[in-house]
Amino acid sequence: MWTYWNPVQISFGSGSFDQLSERLGARNYMLVTYPDVFAAQLGAQIAVKAGPPVLVIDDIAPNPDMAALERQIARVKALATAPEVIIALGGGSVIDSAKVFAAAARSGFAAVKSHLCEKPATDQFSPLPIIAVPTTAGTGSEVTSWATVWDSAAGKKYSLALPGLYPEAAIVDPALMVSKPRDLTVSTGLDAFSHALESIWNHHATPVSRMYAVAAAREIMSVLPRLAENLNDLELRARMAQAALFAGMAFSMTKTAIAHSISYPITLNHGVIHGIACSFTLPAIARSLEGINSPAGTALQEALGARPGSEAADRLEAFLSTLNVSTAPGDYGIDNEGMEALVSSAFEGERGKNYVGQQAALIKSLRSAR
Asked: Tell me: the pLDDT tens digits for 340-361?
């Protein structure tokens, strides 16, 4: 038996950004976005059609941190007129931050922090609705019900997961992604690629999630290297945006697995950008699945055009090489003992337990990547 459910209304295509004011209707809104000229220009376009927002939070940084979120939520709570909806215009950090604001707008930051760090209590939240407008192709947050929250002071990462955090709508306009630089394009694209593979080698995979994941992984392998060299190609941007969306639809069902679990302390402690941190281990993980005989193995072969094990690892290493991404932990400042400790710890976490493979096989595989 299996189930699949995703309540987000998706509008996709070049020019779909123009539908935002219609989707918003007469509701007042707050805008969450990045502190750059491009975001400000898009925000101005929204204001012309829908009126000015009751609040703009545009000091969003990569990897939303607990301390910054607390300060930003205080601004939301201080409003004389509360927003009826949040527009999240940006990449994963913007959409994840918007989800935290949505949860805290009525319940307060203390309730969110307690839910994350102490005692989960989902019944105390009534999140504001979100309209997500991603400007990168990678995160998938526009179609999931969780947000990643970092606590750099404590050296921890949390996941805020509430059913009410699915955005009410996602407007995916590839034209908004054309201006993005190469490094961001590659790192976000590899995040999406990891989402696809992570939802394949996952205990929670279903026929529907595997279908989305296989399609996403195949397309990303075909498109991302070409897009990295042709950043203004709208057709490639559209294909990449759709593949990232499919990857989001896949892992919205399964959540991620061992690669993401390994990646979080690498980002926190070694400063490796998330998309690279969660993808450089993919070949080693694929190698550790040598001989797997299950729907996961079949789907992985369909996705990569190579059998799980050395063949799949070689295929992934070649793909990452075209993007100038090393698969050697030492290149990220991680020695043998450190990497094995990271893997052992990752298997103890929720995401690590989603993985269908074995810890010993993965550690053995990673040793050969040095």
From this structure: 999 999 999 889 999 999 999 9
